[in-house]
């Protein structure tokens, strides 16, 4: 029986054909244009991510504050008991926490985003949507944690009598750099995790070593003074060095960022973000088979 227009027949359903990747599909701008059509899914999954993380815990979103605060207390006790704490005139607790805020958001976001695809295998094999939505939701959840932890930072600043100055505007470029670098790393590592499960296993070790190679508990100035110029230039190729140092300088130390560190971080991120996204899209078609 043929449906006649107007007789109540359902409209034809839209069909999505998944084909092998072409050069046009790998172009980041072409792929990004499709994302606005899935804005509701992105919003729903991001809110779900935040609810599930704290759903059955007694402290709820307070966990977003507890981790950086606990680490701050450990480092403060370590430096004040064992020796002179860095930070100059700024209390070391505030000095350390101001860098832990962006670092903890980055570490938590990268750790969870790297397993975002393998952790949603049933979803990937049942319905089509741009797969990059999954790691993006973890990036957005990490930024929400950053916002919550920043509230505690402002409370500490009030407690210690440290106000804001015009240099606080430099915190915005630091957050943008953090977001872009976290997104690029999430695309790359989540796609690699589908093929090599060692990524998820090695992530805790990587992040632990990475934190001590980043000026979180010590100032970037001390690294610059201690290292030869060529080795310092290699050191600041770590974008998180620019993120943590710029964020701390902007809000707590009232200083402009280190130009070399910030420029190096932006350069590395400008390479990683499109490269990670292209690698992700190149393997998108086969993720459901490998996950």
Written overview of the protein:
With 291 residues, this protein is mostly helical. The chain has one domain. It contains 14 helices and no strands.
Give me some keywords for this one.
291 residues; mainly alpha
**What is the makeup of the main sheet?**
none
Q: SSE order in H/E notation?
A: HHHHHHHHHHHHHH
Shape: globular
Cα radius of gyration in angstroms: 22 Å
**Helicity range:** 55-70%
Mean pLDDT: 82
- Structural class based on helices, strands and sheet pairing: mainly alpha
Number of helices: 14
Number of E-state strands: 0
Strand percentage lies at under 5%
Count up the domains: 1
**Beginning-to-end CA distance, first to last residue:** 42 Å
**Low-pLDDT regions:** none
Briefly say what this structure is:
With 291 residues, the protein is an all-alpha fold. It contains 14 helices and no strands.
Topology overview:
Layout: H1 23-26, H2 28-32, H3 39-54, H4 63-82, H5 92-113, H6 121-124, H7 133-160, H8 171-195, H9 198-212, H10 220-226, H11 229-235, H12 239-253, H13 259-282, H14 287-290
Helix pairs in contact: 3-7, 4-5, 5-7, 5-8, 5-12, 7-8, 8-12, 8-13, 12-13
